């Protein structure tokens, strides 16, 4: 068990999450996701979670494992074309994970997702949370436009509003 990680998670409060993701920032992210859905038929969802529960920390749950759980819990996989993409931020770790449904996963390489995660994490290290998420949404959208271009006006199957857990 990583004691430093446990302490970071235990001392990260809702206040920290709200400071990093104000209502103005969340609204800007929502608008960016809505705009991104106009350029492709992929379904993008952004989630920020402040910290893991102590039980998860003791079990050593990684940000990746938690992102997969959130992907399932929020039913990001439940889209008509299997093209849901979750951008997940575990704020206490400043760790970004991107989980894509099988339709997207078959076309986009893990290295491409990892490059997006790294660019977002670089922004977060500078405490630029809004610009980091907007950059990530833009980069994910560029990949989805390449692999899932708009063929006709579609509907957004997932909420555009960011989830704060």
Automatic annotation (TrEMBL):
<dbReference type="Pfam" id="PF04536">
    <property type="entry name" value="TPM_phosphatase"/>
</dbReference>
<protein>
    <recommendedName>
        <fullName>TPM domain-containing protein</fullName>
    </recommendedName>
</protein>
<dbReference type="InterPro" id="IPR007621">
    <property type="entry name" value="TPM_dom"/>
</dbReference>
<feature type="domain" description="TPM">
    <location>
        <begin position="20"/>
        <end position="142"/>
    </location>
</feature>
